[in-house]
Write a structure and sequence with these properties.
Chain B: Belongs to the binding-protein-dependent transport system permease family. CysTW subfamily. Chain B: Its main location: membrane. Chain B: It is a multi-pass membrane protein. Chain B: InterPro entries: MetI-like, MetI-like_sf. Chain B: Keywords: Cell membrane, Membrane, Transmembrane, Transmembrane helix, Transport. The complex is a heterodimer of chains A (about 350) and B (about 300). Chain A has 13 helices and 9 strands. Chain A starts with a helix and ends with a helix. In chain A, helix 2 links the parallel strand 1 and strand 2. Chain A folds into 2 domains: about 180 residues, D-Maltodextrin-Binding Protein, domain 2 (3-Layer(aba) Sandwich); about 150 residues, Periplasmic binding protein-like II (D-Maltodextrin-Binding Protein, domain 2, 3-Layer(aba) Sandwich). Chain A is an alpha/beta fold and about 350 residues long. The longest helix of chain B is centred in the N-terminal third of the chain and has 46 residues. The model of chain B has no long low-confidence stretch (mean pLDDT about 90). Chain B starts with a helix and ends with a helix. Chain B has about 300 residues and is mainly alpha-helical. In chain B, the strands form 2 sheets. Chain B has a two-stranded antiparallel ribbon. Classes of the chains: A alpha/beta (about 350), B mainly alpha (about 300). At the A-B interface, helix 3, helix 7 and helix 13 of A face helix 3, helix 10 and helix 11 of B.
Chain lengths: ~350, ~300
């Protein structure tokens, strides 16, 4: 939805840059919508005299489909962990060896050797977060640390629930709700997850993006959604709270990588090194309100990030988070079949 | 005798030259048409007969699985074969909503067109101009404007609250009602313009004559006006029905994404579904439905013109 708008803006920016005194170089970043801090872009442009054009996408699948189709003109993309692996396996990512860049020393220990990019030969942490329950406590003030909020909702939330239309995240959440794990090949568990989703759907209002703007304006009262968005919604309306499902909740990380057919490889590498600088990583987080995986960036973050329950997972729920892997094709086919049935 | 053959030969040669010249002259247009319309369509058709690759894209191996999947589904769990009831339901919803949109635009468009056609000739252009103004704005922005009107803290609910009529907002957004409001608004001009075109040609003396012969208002509408503007009604209905069938943005923004339409189902296959072949097959299915509707239209128009002769 946003891409038309941003494509228009990108076009205008391109025209403007062509007219202006030429920047020394350019860089085309393909990133999630409402996710890139304009200040970060500005800072990089001024420091390196490289003009950045940002184009938005709304889901990992959109980004993958567009890059795979070719002719996109992007240099860098910011997929989630399970999709980073797909980009690498499909030969769409460039082995740019960020692990040998000077600022790699700032990457937090836990994100240095992730299963989807062993040793970080391709990608650099952008932000990481969780999928949980976002509830307007002025409508429902019971326990929100359970995915029953969306799968078996309390009376006062029925018909007021939004579920993020992100298949991988929601299927993972549903599988954990029925006691299994994401990407399981266990048919019984998948069946249970489908039944839970199908039974819950009539109690939902919508499956849409845009929570940051919609929830404070009362379009819905609860959601299964991403933590940073919940944080931004709370800043707009303070009764909106974020809960970590005790049944288990998906954890994700978005990482920035260079595409194999990138035209501005050197600029892209400069940018990679740039975002591993704690001060710059803090800029990313200050805008989209997710943690970033760069040590020392906390010092540069806004004060309210350090105490936010959306970012600092409470100890009791720390071990409930499960990192989402990339599902094999046979599981993904079942996911899609369930998803189609769910949204028919 | 001899001269006659020669003469007809000359005429034939002349004809041939004419035909050749018209082909040559239209060649650039035909090339563009092929490159921009039929060519890509051919790719879609070919893709629908290939195997989907694991992470999107296709493998160059023949398979009719995608077409099979359009109509049938194997149960994900016990493997039994049945009709693809999810696809059929989505198809049915799309057809139903497109049909209802056609009816509502007709209900609003007919009086509007009649009103414009009965204004003095000098005023008509202003009214037509007003009808076309929304076309100047991007479809996305018009849809978001509707969202702003019907959302829980939108203009209508806030207004009703201030007036003390309700204290809880009426849930209008994210429903079939919201989709209908949006689609009717978006497609209304496509109905009004062809209706107006045929009403403008309507001979209002016939209406007067009918009144003189003591016809009731309803009888005039039913027996005089509707039969005469029928081509406009048919054209308007087609112009609304066809794009409404494949509508993507309006149902997506106003329907809340909980219930898919055909356009959204196709998008799912190319995106998260990672099954480009099925997406291609579904696209061709949509195209086939549109073709069938258009065939009905052509035949209806033919019948109408034959009846007049």
């Amino acid at each position: 939805m946003m891409w038309k708008l941003s494509a228009g803006l990108a076009g205008a920016a391109l025209l403007a840059s062509a007219g202006m005194a030429q920047a020394a170089g350019e860089l085309n970043l393909y990133n999630w919508g409402n996710y890139t801090n304009p200040e970060l872009i500005k800072k990089f442009e001024e420091a390196h005299d490289i003009k950045i054009t940002v184009t938005d996408y709304d889901s990992n699948s959109t980004a993958l489909a567009k890059v795979k189709a070719g002719g996109h003109g992007f240099d860098m993309v910011v997929p989630s962990a399970n999709f980073v692996k797909i980009f690498i396996d499909e030969g769409l990512a460039m082995e740019s060896r960020p692990d040998q860049m000077p600022n790699f020393k700032n990457v937090a220990e836990q994100w240095r050797n992730p299963p989807w990019d062993p040793g970080r030969h391709y990608s650099v942490p952008w932000q990481w977060g969780t999928v949980g329950m976002v509830v307007d406590t002025s409508v429902y003030d019971g326990d929100i640390n359970t995915s029953a909020i969306v799968f078996d909702p309390p009376e006062s939330l029925v018909g007021k629930i939004n579920v993020a239309p992100e298949m991988g995240d929601i299927m993972g959440l549903a599988l954990m709700y029925v006691g299994s794990e994401p990407c399981t090949t266990d048919k019984d568990a998948l069946k249970k997850a489908r039944d839970a989703l199908m039974a819950a759907k009539p109690k939902w209002l919508s499956m849409d993006y845009g929570l940051v703007e919609k929830m404070p304006r009362g379009d819905f009262a609860a959601a299964a959604y991403w933590n940073g968005a919940a944080f931004r919604a709370r800043l707009a309306k303070d009764t909106i709270k974020f809960g970590y499902p005790k049944e288990g909740y998906p954890v994700w990380m978005d990482s920035v990588l260079i595409l194999k057919d990138a035209k501005n490889v050197e600029n892209a590498k400069t940018f990679m090194n740039f975002v591993m600088e704690p001060e710059n990583a803090a800029l990313i987080s200050a805008f989209a309100r997710y943690a970033n995986g760069i040590d020392g960036s906390e010092a540069f973050m806004p004060e309210d990030m350090k105490t936010a329950v959306e970012i600092q997972v409470p100890d009791a729920y720390k071990d409930k988070g499960v990192f989402l892997p990339a599902c094999p094709k046979e599981v993904n086919d079942i996911y899609t079949a369930i998803w189609t049935e769910l949204t028919k | 005798m001899l001269t006659e053959t020669a003469g007809s030969g000359r005429v034939e040669a002349e004809e041939r030259r004419k035909v050749r010249r018209s082909w040559l002259l239209s060649a650039p247009a035909l090339t563009v048409l092929f490159m921009a319309a039929s060519g890509p369509l051919l790719i879609v058709l070919v893709y629908s007969f290939l195997e989907p690759a694991e992470y999107g894209g296709v493998v160059w191996k023949f398979s009719d699985e995608a077409w099979f999947k359009v109509v049938f589904q194997r149960d994900i769990f016990d493997g039994t074969l049945s009709f693809a009831d999810a696809h059929l339901m989505i198809l049915w919803r799309s057809v139903r909503i497109a049909f209802l949109t056609t009816l509502t635009t007709l209900a609003f468009g007919f009086p509007t067109a009649y009103f414009i056609a009965t204004r003095p000739a000098s005023d008509r252009n202003i009214w037509l101009f007003l009808i076309t103004i929304p076309f100047w704005t991007n479809l996305l922005i018009r849809t978001f404007a509707i969202l702003e009107v019907i959302r829980n803290e939108g203009i209508i609910n806030t207004g009703l609250k201030l007036a003390g009529i309700i204290d809880q907002p009426i849930q209008m957004l994210y429903s079939d009602f919201a989709i209908m409001v949006g689609m009717t608004y978006v497609y209304l001009p496509l109905m009004v313009l062809p209706l107006y075109a045929s009403m403008e040609r309507l001979d209002f003396r016939l209406v007067e004559a009918a009144y003189d012969l003591y016809a009731s208002r309803l009888a005039v509408l039913r027996r005089i006006i509707v039969p005469l503007v029928k081509p406009g009604i048919v054209a308007g209905s087609i112009l609304v029905f066809v794009p409404a069938l494949g509508a993507y943005v309006t149902p997506r923004v106003l329907g809340g994404g909980k219930n898919m339409m055909l356009g959204n189902l196709i998008e799912l296959q190319f995106g998260a579904g990672r099954n480009w072949s099925l997406g291609a097959a579904l696209s061709i299915t949509l195209l086939a439905i549109v073709m069938i509707v258009l065939l009905f239209y052509v035949r209806a128009v033919q019948r109408a013109s034959e009846a007049r002769q």
